[in-house]
Amino acid sequence: MSVPTASLILWDGPVLLVQPQPELKRCSMAHNCLQCIKYLMFVFNLLFWLGGCGILGVGIWLAVTQGNFATLSSSFPSLSAANLLIITGTFVMIIGFVGCIGAIKENKCLLLSVSIT
């Protein structure tokens, strides 16, 4: 009677590493959390931009309807409430727009410029 011998197989190919399931869940959860933060930043900056549009609209409305009635200083006739609202609204709109683009494109330079101002 012959006894079967066990043969030894040596594998010389690439080694495949399989990550455990909890690691995949954590990675997926982190990705989903970052996506949520990205879109929350976009929505916040969109609201900021819309607020700037509202301020600009009120400033233009004041400039058209009130004229020079709301002048803040007699020595500076161009310093009126309408002009101040127009300048502020334009500035807020620009910051909100740059923030929206920075959040969607994930551009560090744009987000840094929004956070500095």
UniProtKB/TrEMBL annotation:
InterPro entries hit by this protein: Tetraspanin/Peripherin (IPR018499), Tetraspanin_CS (IPR018503)
Keywords on record: Membrane, Transmembrane, Transmembrane helix
Origin: domain of life: Eukaryota
Ranges annotated as spanning the membrane: 39-64, 84-104
Tagged with keyword Transmembrane helix: yes
One Pfam short name: Tetraspanin
Main location: membrane
GO cellular component: plasma membrane
Localization, UniProt: Membrane
Topological type in the membrane: Multi-pass membrane protein
Family label: Belongs to the tetraspanin (TM4SF) family.
Name recorded for this polypeptide: Tetraspanin 4
Organism from which the protein derives: Podarcis muralis (Wall lizard)
